[in-house]
Amino acid sequence: MVVISRGAFLKAAAATAAATILAGCSTGSNDESTSNSSVESGPYTVKHAFGETTFDSVPQKIAVVQFWQNPDALLSLGVVPVGAPIVSWGGNDNQSTPWFDKKLEELGGEQPTRYDETDGPNYEELAKLEPDAIFSPYGDMSQEIYDKLTEIAPVVPAPEGVGSWAASWQQTVEMAGKMLKKEDDAKKVIEDTEKQLKDKAAEYENLQGATFIAGAFDNKQNTFGAYTSSDARPRFFSLMGMELAPYIKEHEGGADSFFVNVSAEVIDQLEADAVWAWTETEEDIQKTKDNKLFAQMPALKNDAVVFESDKTFGLALSATSPLSLLWAVNETDVLDNMSKAVENTKKAA
């Protein structure tokens, strides 16, 4: 069994995805004259993982580094970023996401300028936008990257004590609220989102207290990679009232580890009422079902594995935000499928 850190895995994943794959910052539009005009101006400081950033007034043009969570957090507070990275994996024709576009339409805003971040922050394109601030609480942020970004504009990275790729969507929204001086609004967005998610989950009584595992089968290595409680996917299912399976709880590492590799020899110990498994293709699903080394997984025996290959949905659960989570529960059948999986386990008992 191997425990993999979040940073190591996501850097590799970003490289793999990259191989396959002028709007103002405003409230409801891209006209700077309307953006944050109702917020009292004056110097204020935002504390974060790299120290603190002081603003003389609320930034009007905000560029985003890392498309996971960060653009959505701004938009959930009614603020359209001046620039945001291209969504290359799981994105749509707008180089965006359906949940971002839906909220953008509600606000009457225009698409932000998009730039490629295949090789990391696009310093040149960011500088062209002449932003008042750069927002990036979630993603890969080192001291070197932070210092280079501050040469362009004041930066708001992860909260104090939070490392790369570790900020929850709630923390990202909170940081947006602090930067925009909309802390009460941020709190309300978080509370409203959590309430809507819990209300939706309550419609599925058999999910409450049911155990789950989220991960992916590797037919080449004959292993199963299970996400730990530090990862966004288990956090989502936990918010739906489910409980992470005991085996994963017992074998997960510290806060920085989010992925546990389980060999086929012990896969029979992965007891859970339902398993959510990411897969690249439909062909891979059949390979998994035909793999005799995986046959001892209880959920496979019970027809309680929910396979998912839609990249947009995969992104929604990975890059969690108020916008993506509500889209996932309202526009997809993930809860229906997990509910059926739990029922199949009960029938097999």
TrEMBL record:
Keywords: Coiled coil, Signal, Transport
Ranges where the Fe/B12 periplasmic-binding domain occurs: 62-346
CC terms in the record's Gene Ontology section: outer membrane-bounded periplasmic space
PROSITE patterns hit by this protein: FE_B12_PBP, PROKAR_LIPOPROTEIN
Signal peptide (residue range): 1-17
Locations listed in the record: Cell envelope
Family label: Belongs to the bacterial solute-binding protein 8 family.
Designated name of the protein: ABC transporter substrate-binding protein
Organism in which the protein naturally occurs: Rothia terrae
